[in-house]
Design a protein that fits this description.
about 190 residues, mainly beta
Amino acid sequence: MTIPTMPNSIPLPANSPARASKKSSSRRLAVSTLVAFGLLASAVPVPAGDLIIGLGVDNIDEDGASEAVAFQLEYHLDPIRQYAWGSVALMGVAETDEDEDIYIGAGMSLVWDVSPAWFVESSVAAGYYDAGSDGLDLGGEVQFRTLLGVGYRLSEASRISLAIDHLSNAGLEDENPGRNALHLRYGRSF
């Protein structure tokens, strides 16, 4: 007599509570990892470059979307080009918010020195986006982030800035609502 066996894994329906719980747990793990990385990065000596931490709010102009407290972490390598007006550097960025949205990307940053103390910063990055438990559906996982900000150097090694950034899939998908965020940022050079 043969005893019937069950398959090793049974696919869960897309709207099942078990699948939602598993997805929520993986997002919590990703958010926790991002926060732990930020805390570790701020406590460990970092190779030459800039570490930037931002706190702000996203979904600032989205119809029907609630604003969410957002956290941002960037690392800028030493500039690849120095000019009389400023510099260009490679950078990496990670962002999350209380809706558990996650964006991780890499790109380039530019800093224009308006005066010895004041500067304008901008960056563009390509990366991965996950909408989280209650985040905006931006139409896909591949997203591009642009940023524009103005800042003030507190010393040779530290600065603050106020920046707005925009996430968009740049028309790669049929749906492309975009997301805007406003951050107060603190940067430290090493």
